[in-house]
Specification:
8 helices, single chain, Glutaredoxin, alpha+beta, about 290 residues, 10 strands, iron-sulfur, about 15% strand, binds 2-acetamido-2-deoxy-beta-D-glucopyranose, iron, GIY-YIG endonuclease
Length: about 290
């Protein structure tokens, strides 16, 4: 295909949101991101999409605009089956390509969540099989994305990572706690618990507030930077008096650093928000996170 090279270039410059198979968009554990392009296969081995229609072969199905009403679309046109689907806005622009174990339920979820003009019609391609293989569904999604990128030079806006209109914000893991609670008498000094924690977890951020709701701008920035680096990191809330009582004072002494947040990598203090920010800007943080 003559457009293959430009497809790869356009795709390479984007970070795409990869919709994981799951319940409708209202579910919060819905999204993940994936770097495109996927490894190119030799041209004689096409992606395994035989069971699914191509994007250009599927016919658009209009979606009723009133989200409070039941979804009045013929089940044959929008079946409750596993497949790939594309959502079009009122101007006929493809906004999002998703995969689902139940495309009807997913489209219903979008219809209730996004502005009506963004979800004016859908194209779907479902599998003939009752429970198609996950990789067959993933390949169908990839093929639809590639077809669209080849035709327009860009990904649908809803599939660009960071756009939470279509898929929810990434689910954040809970913060680590140093103790089960204040009612429990500690048998080891807090300093030892800190030491163990920063040595057992490669990247640790001691922050003010929780990971999902940081209580200060510096902590928020540090969480954002680590997430942007796709770092596998844990957080500890230094304001959690119930589970981390005494942590602030003990940590300041442990690290000889007077403020929070504090980021540790490989058991060693790297720094606070300013240091992490400037390392990120200079590209040093990525190197550090990979290296250690
Ligand atoms: C997110 O997606 C919506 C709908 O597809 C689009 O209108 C909007 O421009 C996108 N936002 C960004 C920041 O890409």
């Amino acid at each position: 295909m003559a457009t293959m090279a430009s497809t790869a270039t356009a795709a390479a410059s984007l970070r795409l949101a990869f919709p994981l198979l799951s319940a409708p968009a209202s579910s919060s554990s819905y999204s993940n991101t994936l770097r495109f392009p996927l490894r190119r296969r030799s041209s004689c081995r096409p992606l395994a999409v035989a069971a699914f229609k191509k994007l250009s072969e599927a016919s658009p199905v209009p979606i009723p605009q009133e989200p409070t009403q039941p979804l009045l679309v013929d089940e044959d046109a929008l079946p409750p089956k596993a497949g790939v689907y594309g959502v079009y806005d009122a101007a006929g622009e493809l906004q999002f390509v998703g995969i689902s174990r139940n495309v009807r339920a997913s489209v219903e979820g979008h219809r209730r969540k996004v502005p009506a003009n963004l979800c004016a019609s859908v194209k779907v391609a479902v599998s003939d099989e009752e429970a198609p293989d996950r990789s067959a569904l993933n390949n169908a999604w990839k093929s639809w994305m590639e077809e669209h990128i080849a035709a327009t030079g860009k990904a649908p806006p809803g599939n660009v990572a960071g756009n939470h209109t279509w898929v929810g914000a990434p689910q954040r893991p809970p913060d680590l706690r140093l103790t089960p609670g204040r009612h429990v008498q500690l048998t080891v000094p807090l300093e030892q618990l800190i030491d163990r924690l920063v040595k057992e977890n490669r990247v640790v951020a001691f922050i003010k507030g929780s990971r999902s709701a940081p209580q200060c701008g510096f902590s928020q920035r540090v969480v954002g930077i680590l997430e942007a680096h796709a770092a596998d990191f844990v957080t500890v809330d230094v304001l959690d008096e119930e589970h981390n009582h005494g942590l602030r004072e003990t940590l300041k002494a442990y690290s000889s650093w007077p403020t929070f947040p504090q980021v540790f990598v490989g058991g060693e203090l790297v720094g606070g928000c300013d240091i992490i920010s400037s390392m990120a800007e200079r590209g040093e943080l990525a190197a550090l996170l990979i290296q250690k």
